[in-house]
Every structure is written in structure tokens, then in C-alpha cells.
Design brief:
By secondary structure, the protein is mainly β. The chain has one domain. Helices cover about 15% and strands about 40% of the residues.
Length: about 240
């Protein structure tokens, strides 16, 4: 009898404790807790840090912490390729059935300088030659392969936000590509590649899905007897995101 009474008394105490715990008010937050929560909510995420690039250099224009700076990015390329051609020439006349094999070499070094105010300049040198084609170290002359050895591949001024309207403009010796590059391309397969003197202006819309480009290229013909000839063009490109 006593054991049964003790059991029911213990059960009643446990039920009352559970009910009290449910009705008890939540623990009040201290001032430190409120300050910590407010700090977490108002804290702004830090911007992602730029990845370290050993080929870039930043030159500040003053000793101030947020002083504008000139950013230099150095880049380069080297390509050595073995070629064999059989037959050696492709003409309407009787084909030359002899084979030609050689090693061609292309080396490029350049710098991309970005100045405050979105005024930039890119300069790139290129050296192209065939192994054994140059008998001695001489001046920059056209060798028997038709390559000019050391030459300026690109040298142009550019901006990516002309008049704060999102217009890109490029002026100087540069590479031009239009559409699928069937008519105008840089022809990177060729050791010497292609570049022209000219002007290129373009503007993208709808998250770069639609691009309008206008260009003016100076066609250089060493045997010309008339004035310089310009090639003018207008290109419209539409590439929706769902096709990418």
C-alpha cells in the first residue's frame, strides 16, 4: 500500500514538473547576447581576395592607403611545332611531290597596363622563325621563310567603359575576329598569326547576349601605288544563354 502511494506521488511530481517547464517563460537574453546577435546580423561579408598572380604588379601613385594604382599584367607564350608537308605545294599546276619538314618556333612576350580611369594599354612582341633558317644573328630582316623574326604583334590603347556607357574601344595594332572567323580571324595556326592597324568599338546588351561591333581596319599592301585603303565593318552577334 505504501509503495503504491509513493509511486503515484512520484508520477504526480513528474507531471507537474513537465507542465511547469512548458509554461515557464524563455530565458531572457543578456545585453551581451543581444549585442552579439546584432553584430552578426549587421556584419558585412568581406569581399573575396584576389588570387595571387606572380606575373602581375601594382604600382600605387601615392602613399595613401586607398591611392589609385597602375596594374601591370605580364604574359607570354612559346610554341615549337614540327611540320611535314607532302606534297610541298598545292597549286593548279603539276603538284610538287617532294616533302618538306621543318620546326617552326613562336615566342611572345607582352604587358597589359591598366591605369586609373579605365585607360589601358597593351603591348606584345613576337618572334617567329624556322630552325636553321637564319644563318647568323643579324638585324631584323625578312628571312627566306617569309617571317620577319622579331616584330610588334599588338600595341593598342583601350577602355572597357567609354564615357561610362559600357562601350569598349580599342585603337592601334590589334587582333580582329568577326563571327565564326571564316572571313576575318587571327589565324593562330600560322606561326606569325595576324594583326591589323585599326579601330574597334563594341557594346554588349542583355548580360552580353547581344553585341554590336563596328570596326575600321587599315589594309596594308606593300606593293600598293595608291593611298591607304580602309575596310569598314559592322557586326551583330546574338548568343542567348540557353544556347551556351
Amino acid at each position: 500500500m505504501f509503495a503504491r502511494s509513493a509511486f503515484w506521488a512520484l508520477a504526480a511530481v513528474l507531471l507537474c514538473a513537465a507542465a511547469y517547464a512548458e509554461d515557464a517563460p524563455a530565458e531572457k537574453k543578456t545585453d551581451d547576447d543581444r549585442h552579439a546577435a546584432t553584430t552578426e546580423e549587421t556584419a558585412k561579408p568581406e569581399p573575396p581576395k584576389e588570387k595571387y598572380n606572380p606575373f602581375s604588379l601594382s604600382i600605387p601613385l601615392s602613399d595613401e592607403e586607398d591611392a589609385p594604382s597602375i596594374k601591370l599584367r605580364f604574359f607570354g607564350q612559346h610554341r615549337t611545332r614540327y611540320e611535314i608537308r607532302t606534297p610541298a605545294t598545292y597549286t593548279a599546276a603539276l603538284a610538287d611531290q617532294t616533302s618538306v619538314q621543318n620546326f617552326n618556333m613562336r615566342t611572345r612576350l607582352g604587358v597589359d597596363a591598366r591605369f586609373p580611369g579605365n585607360a589601358n594599354f597593351l603591348f606584345e612582341l613576337q618572334d617567329v622563325r624556322l630552325w636553321g633558317d637564319e644563318p647568323r644573328a643579324a638585324a631584323n630582316t625578312v628571312n627566306s621563310s617569309g617571317f620577319e623574326g622579331l616584330d610588334v604583334l599588338q600595341a593598342y590603347f583601350y577602355t572597357t567603359n567609354l564615357f561610362d556607357l559600357g562601350i569598349e574601344a580599342y585603337v592601334g595594332r590589334q587582333k580582329f575576329t568577326v563571327g565564326n572567323q571564316r572571313l576575318i580571324s587571327t589565324l593562330e595556326w600560322s606561326p606569325a598569326s595576324r594583326a591589323w592597324d585599326g579601330i574597334r568599338i563594341q557594346r554588349s546588351f542583355f548580360d552580353k547576349q547581344f553585341t554590336v561591333m563596328a570596326l575600321a581596319m587599315l589594309i596594308n599592301d606593300l606593293s600598293r601605288v595608291r593611298d591607304d585603303e580602309w575596310m569598314l565593318g559592322l557586326s551583330l552577334r546574338y548568343a542567348p544563354n540557353w544556347l551556351k
